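Posting this for the archive.
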Amino acid sequence: MPMPSLESATLTVWVKTGSRNEKRAKSGISHFLEHMAFKGSKKRPSAKDISEAVDAIGGEFNAGTGKEWTNFYIKARADNLETAMDVLSDMVINPLIDKKEIARERGVIVEEIAMYEDTPMIHIGDVFEQLIFKGNSLGWDTAGSAATVKSITREDFLQYRKIHYFTENMLLTVSGGVSEEKVIKLAEKYFIDISKGKSQKSKFNFESKQTRPQVFLYPQKKEQAQLIIGFRGNPRNYEHRYAESVLSAILGAGMSSRMFIEIRERRGLAYSVYTSIERYTDTGYLATHAGVDPTKAEEAVKVILDQYYQVSLPAGRQAISNAELAKAKELIKGSIALYLEDTKAVNYYFGEDELFLGKVLTPEEVFAKVDKVTIKEVITEAKKLFTPEKLNLAIIGPFKDSGKFAKILK
């Protein structure tokens, strides 16, 4: 994605595998392997060598692991793109995966897991997915557990790389002050050594056996309760995903959304409250996250549920107005426009669609689809989504009994 007015560029290598592709006994191997790429490579045999190479061009680098993907990136001045290609390709293609480094990094990751568990605002997302994707690898924590991380060996890493790290399962995205011609030449020069393999069709087929509302209580003595309440939804390629996005925006995007006005401004129940959508290859969900006083948790759940169910009403005081629809659309388009001012964000925006859908839409094409959404379509999506058999509530807080919350959901 050439962005001629910019002096910087971001290079991202994507691998189409994440925690969802793991075996239970080795849960967390995708994330652990991501860490090992920074611990030494063929050309730069230590973590210090790699970091010095990036610092020498004034760049920044990092990586991420999701449920269905892993990525690695370097962001630097566009003039240093070749060095970035050299460093990143060496990290991803030729990591040393030294046994001594594995032992050291194992302790780092165990502490990372503990840190997230001690941070309820972050950990609640994992707790909610454990509930909504119960019995499926989608519900496993991306970082794994202390026990599984301690069991992973160098041979496990090599086997995992052999299965997932090959040309047909990988994607290179570059955005910023670069030309397509230069990027392709550098990619051919530095990524030619990636092994070839045979792509396999995804075997993912999440089937929920849920027939009634579910509650997952994670007892923890905290002064604030973190909760996520939402409904099992639709996959990445869902036909009506733009109407679903407008619905989510009306409910909980921005400081004038229904959730924010009712929960924060009118009732003072939470400092932060928002609604969002998560989509995977074959499933997804729409949910609202809030941090509340434990004594107000029941009230917050009731209010959030009211907002969900009222938005599906075609008429009356809570009906969606033309002005509310227009505002939600502009919020979505404005958020995309602001997001795409950063080269790393551009790689994410187009990279995931290319990796999983095999095609990308320009922002203008997306804006056109958003503009076509009608009130009727939004209400239709609300009615399809907001049904009791798809409802899930996860809470972290000083609670002993989930019964009172289960009663509210019914």
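Residues 99-117 form the longest helix (19 residues). Residues 230 and 287 are 4 Å apart (CA to CA).
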